[in-house]
Amino acid sequence: MIDHIGAGSVSDKLVGDHEAVRIMTGAQIPNGADAVVMFEQTIELEDTFTIRKPFSKNENISLKGEETTTGDVVLKKGQVINPGAIAVLATYGYAEV
């Protein structure tokens, strides 16, 4: 495990063969990573971890542009900022409005 990436954070590490990072939901995957294995599908020991099932390339990864495209309206002017709106703002990298 070469890094730990919190939600909203970006890693500067390059993930190589047989390497992994711990990544929180919503964080940007680092260069070199090609899949995300859910924590529940791993067995973690002090220095190592085991993956319980096979996984495929791009598994559990949302690719850029997959959810919206340029010009899509995700929040309307005057909309109340509730928890759902905050989640949308965070998805697009806004910490302040």
Automatic annotation (TrEMBL):
Pathway: Cofactor biosynthesis; molybdopterin biosynthesis
Signal peptide (residue range): none
Pfam families for this protein: MoeA_N (PF03453)
Obligatory cofactor(s): Mg(2+)
GO CC terms, sorted: cytosol
Residue span(s) of domain MoeA N-terminal and linker: 6-93
InterPro entries in alphabetical order: MoeA-like, MoeA_linker/N, MoeA_linker/N_sf
Enzyme Commission identifier(s): 2.10.1.1
GO terms, biological process: Mo-molybdopterin cofactor biosynthetic process
Annotated catalysed reactions: adenylyl-molybdopterin + molybdate = Mo-molybdopterin + AMP + H(+)
Keyword list, A-Z: Magnesium, Metal-binding, Molybdenum, Molybdenum cofactor biosynthesis, Transferase
Gene Ontology MF terms: metal ion binding; molybdopterin molybdotransferase activity
SUPFAM superfamilies, A to Z: MoeA N-terminal region -like
Enzyme class: transferase
Assigned protein family: Belongs to the MoeA family.
Described function: Catalyzes the insertion of molybdate into adenylated molybdopterin with the concomitant release of AMP.
Protein name: Molybdopterin molybdenumtransferase
Underlying gene: moeA_2
